[in-house]
Amino acid sequence: MEEEGKSKDEAVRELPELRLRIKELDALQHEHLRVKKALNASGERYRTILESIEEAYLELDLQGNLTFFNKAVSQMLGYTPDELMGMNYRRYVSPEATRRIYKIFNAIYRTGKSAEIFDYQIIKKDGGRMFREMSASLIKDQAGNPIGFRGLARDVTKRKLAEEALRKKDRELEIKSGSLAESNAALKVLLKQREEDKMELERNILSNVGEIIMPYIEELKKSRLSPDQIICVNTIESNLKNITSPFLRNLTLNCFNLTPKEFHVANLVKEGRTTKEMAEFLNVSTGAIDFHRNRIRKKLGMNCKKINLRSFLMTLS
């Protein structure tokens, strides 16, 4: 009887402590449920973000098998989620890019540093190809041990194709520029040849006039001609000399726009005539000769230059 009474007394004394313990357990359970709910909400929020972004988010184990990915990965590759789960990256990465990616993943594993993988080609389920670039980093467990890789990949096919098209255009322009340079060189040779042909033709004309026509004119001048005939012969001789004169031809070719009177004065200056001699020969005043000389210097661009007019005109002969 005494032991039974003692057990009851002890139970009564321990009751408040038990109630407090139960209350603490209830509080811990409530906190656990709250944390669990918060984690579920947080996880749902992150899943929503991952599913809404255009970039492909993926996680691989250390062997390169897919362990987690968002909807963009499936859309990018054309596989269903069930087909993708557990698939090794070598299945959808082009053979030429596989070794490069392996080396980069290996460096990430050894150093723990993130890396960028640029312009690698992937093969879709339907055989189509596209270019991606990816930011990759290491995944570790709570103990800090590497357990896999995560990556955020972007489709850069349009940019890659645009760059390739631009390079193609550059190559075409380079080829066209080379062809244009060759054409310009050929044109320069042709123009030079035409100029030489022109000069040769001029020399032939001058030679023919001097050797074939002028002797007959000299013979005509020795004949008994009427005054009118003499005037005609002298006029023909004078005009032929003017036409075949290199000096007058050079003045004309250089586009100095001299008037007939200025041509005449320039020719007399070149021959060494004085202002007085030219005035008497042309039956004008010395002031008129000075006016024509100044006009000639201006048209020849000699106004502000200390160059002798006759010396310059001699260079055109």
Describe the structure.
The protein has eleven helices and five strands, in the order H-E-E-H-H-H-E-E-E-H-H-H-H-H-H-H. With 317 residues, the protein is α+β, with helices and mostly antiparallel strands. The chain has helices at residues 2-52, 71-77, 81-84, 95-111, 157-222, 227-244, 246-253, 260-270, 275-282, 286-299, 309-315, and strands at 56-61, 66-69, 115-123, 129-140, 146-155. It has a five-stranded antiparallel beta sheet with strand order 2-1-5-4-3, with helices on both faces. It starts with a helix and ends with a helix.
Write the layout of secondary structure elements.
Blueprint: H1 2-52, E1 56-61, E2 66-69, H2 71-77, H3 81-84, H4 95-111, E3 115-123, E4 129-140, E5 146-155, H5 157-222, H6 227-244, H7 246-253, H8 260-270, H9 275-282, H10 286-299, H11 309-315
Antiparallel strand pairs: 1-2, 1-5, 3-4, 4-5
Helix pairs in contact: 5-6, 8-10, 8-11, 9-10
Tally of discrete structural domains: 2
Q: Report the radius of gyration as a whole number of Å.
A: 52 Å
Low-confidence stretches: none
**How much of the sequence is in beta strands?**
5-15%
Order of helices and strands: HEEHHHEEEHHHHHHH
Rounded mean pLDDT is 80
Strand adjacency order, main sheet: 2-1-5-4-3
Give the helix level as a range of percent.
55-70%
Q: First CA to last CA: what distance?
A: 156 Å
Total strand count, please?
A: 5
The number of helical runs is: 11
